[in-house]
Amino acid sequence: SQTPFTRRIAVLGSTGSIGTQTLDIVREAPHIFSVSSLTAGSNVELLVRQAREFRPHVVCILDESRRDELRSKLDDAQCKDIRVVCGSQGVVECAAETDADVVVTGIVGCAGLLPTVAAIKAGKDIALANKETLIAGGPVVVPLVKKHGVSMTAADSEHSAIFQCLQGAPQGALRKIILTASGGAFRDRPAKDLASVTLADALKHPNWSMGAKITIDSASLYNKAAEVIEAHYLFGLDYDNIEAVIHKQSIIHSMVEFEDSSVLAQLGWADMRLPLLYSMSWPHRVSMPSFKPLDLVEIGSLTFQEIDRQKYPNMDLAYIAGRKAGTMTCVLNAANEAAVEMFREEKIHFLDIPKINQAMMDSHRDDFLQYPTLDDIVHFDTVTRIHARELVASGKLG
Ligand code: NAD
Ligand code: MG
Predict the structure, then answer these.
(1) Which of 11, 297, 319, 379 is least crowded, fewest Cβ atoms below 10 Å from its Cβ?
(2) Which of 85, 107, 153, 278 to mutate to test the pocket of ligand 1 (most atoms within 8 A of CB)?
(3) What DSSP letter does each residue of 19-57 carry, written as one string?
(4) How confident is the model over 11-36, as a mean pLDDT?
């Protein structure tokens, strides 16, 4: 049997897709996991239920106008000792100023950056779901992880797969990373049909049930594009050695190729709880009776297809931004976040998303910084969102 261990978990974004699945894991393995803190955007009702069940020391509601309501709902004998904080400062407090061992970053978007940085500085290990942290902040976050000697373990299924395949591999053995992609909502539609797709169409993911932003990012293949950059920052390979391939079944979660040409893959059902669990428990393997074992005969066949780079311009943009590095990936991330928000507001068309990304990268060339500070990254994240909205408002987007 394995060495027993316990972990205290801070859950950022506890009311979202990643957050609720993290708590499903804690519920199933209470002998291992317990909860230090929970943070939510605005869903007070769910946060209160979670606080009652998991009894964290502190909870945060981002929306400051809901703080009093949250406090009053947690004012009985069992819950009155739970601290209630609010706003983005409250999120930072829940990430850094608790007794948590591991911080699960289930916040969506670059909003995850500052709390994650605070957690690293406080010596917390990071179970990274919030990939935007690395896309925007990679040049600052990667050295910080080294400096503070913490571990940053990916919860993203592809990067978890790569990390699992790398266990025990000697330094320098890794030659290539092959990311798999489901292909998103429009994988079976010809490129010309993308001109007429709607928001509702983009929100229908064929294989995974996830938050709205990452589901739209999957449809535009921005998610895979971002994962190329995420892989670079997590595993240190050059962009020439990071590839992506469409694998419709989402059973192989990614692969690594070693110097001797041997390829290793990690397989599992399309269930985020498995990579999440590994990011929370590494290097341990936890028994989870509710996880359905893989059945290859039930799956029958695994197929692979090349990504159409014309149909999905975000892929090339990610390689260009990634190779440029510095502030360019932050600008790509911020442009895409603003574009997806505007798409959800039905202000722009689906095909405008990569156009906005490209336009913001092009206009960043003069301001580009190769070695940004955290403040530089926050600055370009802010101004890029403003510029993207101005571009759309001006009607000048081609
Ligand atoms: P979601 O929209 O379901 O949940 C987001 C959570 O963050 C919610 O609790 C929300 O209240 C909170 N939140 C939103 N904006 C915030 C802000 N500005 N400040 C603080 N909190 C805020 O999103 P999700 O699908 O769970 O994704 C979370 C992250 O995990 C994303 O970065 C995504 O790319 C990544 N991820 C998700 C999945 C998945 O299966 N859902 C898979 C891989 C990676
Ligand atoms: Mg992924």
Answers:
(1) 297
(2) 107
(3) HHHHHHHHHH-TTTEEEEEEEESS-HHHHHHHHHHH--S
(4) 98
